[in-house]
Amino acid sequence: MLRETYHIEIVGPEDAPVQRASVRTAGLDAARERALRLFRRARVPQRSGPAAEAVRIVDGAGTEVFRWSVWDEGAGRG
Hints:
The chain is α+β, with helices and mostly antiparallel strands. It has one domain (1-24, 46-77). Helix content is 19%, strand content 37%. It has 1 helix and 4 strands, in the order ββαββ. Strands 2-1-3-4 form a 4-stranded antiparallel beta sheet, covered by helices on one side. The longest helix has 15 residues, at 28-42.
């Protein structure tokens, strides 16, 4: 199975990167799960530094393929 590299960025105010990680997965779904886990961890109250406001995934070609923000929390859940 072909694996692709995805770059996960946790961003703060004004899209300033707070944390970056690269993952190699067989698909975007696995990268999305990892990104959301990192985002939840970056949002814990004990964490120091700038507040995490969003997470985005950029594929190997530099195209943003996923974005989730604090304003999406709870959207579509019920």
